[in-house]
Amino acid sequence: SPVLVPCLLSLSPFLSFLIPVPIIVPCPCPLFPFLSRGVPKPFTEVIKANIGDAQAMGQKPITFLRQVTALCLYPELLANPSIPEDAKDRARRLLAACGGHSAGAYTASPGIELVRQDVARFLQRRDGVTAEPGDIFLSTGASDAIVVLGGVVTQGTHTRWTGTPQYPTGTRAATPNTLPGPVLGLYWYWEWDHDPQNPTRQVQSRQCIEDVIKFAYEEKLFLMADEVYQDNIYAEGSAFHSFKKVLFEMGPPYSEVVELASFHSISKGFMGECGFRGGYMEVVNMDPAVKQQLAKLVSVRLCPPVPGQIVLDTVVSPPQPGDPSYDLFMAEKQAVLSSLAHKARLTQEIFNRTPGIHCNPVQGAMYSFPRIELPPRALAAAKAQDQAPDMFFCMKLLEETGICVVPGSGFGQREGTFHFRMTILPPTEKLQVLLEKLSSFYTKFVKEYS
């Protein structure tokens, strides 16, 4: 349509780099057809360690989140005496904010106003800085918000990119551009440059964040921060620092000038509710004219999925001490996070026992990004197949073990180094087998190509 075509064209820079290199994508796995036809393989299942899908890896849903969602989708359950009253109260409150008191109705394009208010209160508690519901846009996960915002800020003929967008969103490597005329700067800051970082799983220091903000201020850049892993901090002495909090603690001129968009999602953290597709974007110091265009583009997409908005509300406004659901909620949340912390340590220990594999401490998020040494014959074999060396390794790994990981070349890495990214989400027992199997394959691979 005349309305949609310009929007889609404006998104083309984003769409073109979502899958920029031939990486191993989450689904479908190229081996599935062979497995279903009974072609013999030296494994019985494909382990999709390439994507952060917690519940696909066996993580149990958080009870309160699912109870409220179930109540909203099937209000007849409100008569069920086994469901806690605080979950019922939340469901009634959310249904009252929906058209026709139904979760099946369209909501306002930026999301249910009640949920936006709860997000604003969550941000104010987290950062100690005022947050306005009008600056918050609910979304179909963080990735959708990033694409929508990109459709606004990339319009015009003088857009300057300060990064090399790669899998799946962007890098921090600043590369000056000599475009003439007025320039809209975009500072790519998410995935492996967010806090914690993906795929390198390092937690950024406050000083590092201050340096990023100063850089954005000096270069007049729009700052985008993906903070979906803010709950996933494992290393002792590490802590999450939101960009908004640091920005305002730095004070003028930074807090008055730097334009910032931050993103959060129900897909990561302790929630792992990837399939519900819920999240939000908060904009700070955004030019009013640009914000107006953002609201227009959001309206074209009608509204985010209502179940995702419901889950988001339970995340930003969880049970409080004294509530019937509080003890179970806290126990389940801590169980998930402590399990991830244990698996982070396990991953580092097992990989570093294998000569040629180097794995830094997994400080946060839910991935590891080991560096692997590859012999010259492997590099030559990869070149003969027109593949990046780590892609060649990952495909061999998949074909021989059924373990699916992502090559480091899909993210960008230092010249002459090779990596792969894998999730730490499988159950502990299964993860240990996976790590040992992968390490054994690497040793065999190196011997074969030495």
TrEMBL record:
<dbReference type="InterPro" id="IPR045088">
    <property type="entry name" value="ALAT1/2-like"/>
</dbReference>
<dbReference type="GO" id="GO:0005737">
    <property type="term" value="C:cytoplasm"/>
</dbReference>
<keyword id="KW-0808">Transferase</keyword>
<feature type="signal peptide">
    <location>
        <begin position="1"/>
        <end position="18"/>
    </location>
</feature>
<protein>
    <recommendedName>
        <fullName>alanine transaminase</fullName>
        <ecNumber>2.6.1.2</ecNumber>
    </recommendedName>
</protein>
<feature type="domain" description="Aminotransferase class I/classII large">
    <location>
        <begin position="196"/>
        <end position="438"/>
    </location>
</feature>
<comment type="pathway">
    <text>Amino-acid degradation; L-alanine degradation via transaminase pathway; pyruvate from L-alanine: step 1/1.</text>
</comment>
<comment type="subunit">
    <text>Homodimer.</text>
</comment>
<dbReference type="GO" id="GO:0030170">
    <property type="term" value="F:pyridoxal phosphate binding"/>
</dbReference>
<dbReference type="GO" id="GO:0042853">
    <property type="term" value="P:L-alanine catabolic process"/>
</dbReference>
<keyword id="KW-0032">Aminotransferase</keyword>
<dbReference type="InterPro" id="IPR015424">
    <property type="entry name" value="PyrdxlP-dep_Trfase"/>
</dbReference>
<comment type="function">
    <text>Catalyzes the reversible transamination between alanine and 2-oxoglutarate to form pyruvate and glutamate.</text>
</comment>
<dbReference type="InterPro" id="IPR015422">
    <property type="entry name" value="PyrdxlP-dep_Trfase_small"/>
</dbReference>
<dbReference type="Pfam" id="PF00155">
    <property type="entry name" value="Aminotran_1_2"/>
</dbReference>
<dbReference type="InterPro" id="IPR015421">
    <property type="entry name" value="PyrdxlP-dep_Trfase_major"/>
</dbReference>
<dbReference type="GO" id="GO:0004021">
    <property type="term" value="F:L-alanine:2-oxoglutarate aminotransferase activity"/>
</dbReference>
<keyword id="KW-0732">Signal</keyword>
<keyword id="KW-0663">Pyridoxal phosphate</keyword>
<comment type="similarity">
    <text>Belongs to the class-I pyridoxal-phosphate-dependent aminotransferase family. Alanine aminotransferase subfamily.</text>
</comment>
<dbReference type="InterPro" id="IPR004839">
    <property type="entry name" value="Aminotransferase_I/II_large"/>
</dbReference>
